[in-house]
Amino acid sequence: MVRLAVTGAAGRMGTRIVELASADERFSVAVALEAPGHARIGDCIVKGVKIVDRLEADFDVLIDFSAPDATMMYLDMVEKSGKRAVIGTTGHTAEQQAKIAQAAKRIPVVKAANMSVGVNVLLQLVARAAQVLGPDYDIEILEGHHRFKKDAPSGTALALLDSICKAIGRNPAETVVHGREGRDALRRAGQIGMHALRLGDTVGEHEVFFGTLGETISLKHSAHTRDTFVNGALRAAAWLADKPAGLYSMQDVLFGK
């Protein structure tokens, strides 16, 4: 049985991770974490487990859906304890991502912009489509999330961009354009457009369009509930439990490494 430490345990994602993990015979919830000063510190979240602000109890794998700065604090605790981490938090800076990669030289880490199994299949599909369709097809990426999401574009949209650019040998930073406006907003050859919507309680929508004169192809993923991401994170935690140090992705979890 894999003993889990769950960050943001009182939040939307954390609550569902605790609930689904508690109902899964592969897991037990050993630690439920929240930020120091949180109103629910000390509350019992599952039988025998109270919400705490320090990673002191023993565990096997930490699952993190929190905030970029919180990730770094928790990762430091995990590294010191020699355990494992599944990171689903997005919006990390380049410096923070470098620190995560450095930590993964000493401990096993799965980091993914999106834990959904379907999204990770989509990452492969868009790469293949870009290769086969070629430069005659314009590419646009559209993502939509709830009104409370802080970062834009989403980590998943950036992962889609990266997957496409790797497949066709492009530099994402030199290829992407974020939205269009003005009197001279004509599409430039080779650009990949990136567009973000923030609407109500939208869980997660990602669609990649490939269009040329005469036809358009679109590949789309819709997340209906947050359980989609929770189930992927639990799958990653089970997979990671016996892996050596390294930085892994959901592609590794699903397709092997």
Describe the secondary-structure layout.
Layout: E1 2-6, H1 12-22, E2 27-33, E3 44-46, E4 49-52, E5 61-64, H2 68-81, E6 84-87, H3 94-103, E7 108-111, H4 117-133, E8 138-145, H5 155-168, H6 172-175, E9 176-178, E10 192-198, E11 204-212, E12 215-223, H7 227-240, E13 246-248, H8 250-255
Parallel strand pairs: 1-2, 1-5, 2-4, 5-6, 6-7, 7-13, 8-10, 9-10
Antiparallel strand pairs: 3-4, 8-11, 11-12
Question: What's the quick description here?
Answer:
This protein is α/β, with parallel strands linked by helices and 257 residues long.
What does it look like?
It is a single chain. The protein is an alpha/beta fold. The protein folds into 2 domains: 2-111 and 226-255, Rossmann fold (3-Layer(aba) Sandwich); 117-223, Dihydrodipicolinate Reductase, domain 2. Helices cover 35% and strands 27% of the residues. The protein contains 8 helices and 13 strands. The protein has helices at 12-22, 68-81, 94-103, 117-133, 155-168, 172-175, 227-240, 250-255; strands at residues 2-6, 27-33, 44-46, 49-52, 61-64, 84-87, 108-111, 138-145, 176-178, 192-198, 204-212, 215-223, 246-248. The longest helix is centred in the middle third of the chain and has 17 residues, at 117-133. The radius of gyration is 19 Å and the shape is elongated. The two termini are 23 Å apart.
